[in-house]
């Protein structure tokens, strides 16, 4: 079975049945993927404000009504508690477990934030002959904590997390133009070139995901990443928060092209 | 004194001193202008969610911290309670007065939402030889209630308000391309042509602002408008809400070009 030929609806079904539990880069090219943060309603205003103030790392695609597991925009038949391949549960900033469903943890006061994901623009990069190394190498994308501060909002503060794709300088120009058109899935790169300028010590030791090969003559290109909220949660230590596992996204019915308008 | 040569900071000073109390279309071309809605914190989450779900009519430029009259992004020296030329105070959905300052009404639980304004893209239209009729005729832009429903969020629901600029079909194409690049100030038109299709009966009787001349061979072109929150407030009737008077905007230090990124 070639997963890449499946529709988003078919992939979500396989994910809900726990037949797909891995990372989702390269699945359903052309369709927007989404990161997740679930918080109790008490913290929802502060986080919604945080996303408004940090649209590059936290571009909101949809926010659910309190207690609802349904979506109305990204898909009509989704269950937020079961349709990500893998979730992480955080208590007081500590990850206490990874789960393929969070059905048992569900609370009536949960609000779910679905946040744009850079996997969404990879189909556009491939179309323009810009390589996407982690797809070539069948890995999860490398992600790094940076020293770039987010703008605080209420209780939330912390630094930006970035994803990295290596490419030549010419490809980086194309990649900036292509992704700059897609602000809802993180938009243009936040940095190109020297990792140390944004506080990354070793490209071969990502904080999330897996290291990929950087070839001779390639530059690392960094995009704001929807794992930023997890970094913030680890920093702020709210009583309870649930996220997706990095790289393990929700696959929506919305085409990336539709996110431009 | 030619107001159009003044910097945003100079214009805000004149507004604060109540030397400018009129509408702001055409002032400080190239700089973003902003609509206003102030609500007590209790309603702020529902409204912030409303803006997330209705980004075309309510593109958020900045949200203040509770109780603060200061801005951090749109300007460094602003006072939200005095730097709009005119405000409207609504109690239970009824406008109870228009004021050039809301200093006396200020409450520690106020949250201010600054929302993008279509005046911001008019400099770009003029540059491309697209006429902006209300500037030519020294009037406030005509604004209309439509039958286009906003997506509800919590207590907030209601229909979109639009602004209208008449132009030829060829100019409308240019206008769509130019404004489509500026989603933070309402983006592309929501309708071109027949007003009755969006529930507008008579172009010569706008619900807000003033009627302008529509010449032979011109089409009315409609953009989502930041007066939409006022329509929503009149519909939902919260205990207390404060807005700008339609057309009487905040002039920011942010160039429109900077809003693209």
UniProtKB/TrEMBL annotation, chains A, B:
EC number annotated for this UniProt entry: 4.2.1.-
KW Protein transport (keyword) present: no
Domain of life: Bacteria
Position of the signal peptide: none
Keyword entries, A-Z: Lyase
GO molecular function: lyase activity
Family the entry assigns: Belongs to the D-glutamate cyclase family.
Record-linked HAMAP family: Hydro_lyase (MF_01830)
UniProt protein name: Putative hydro-lyase G5A66_04875
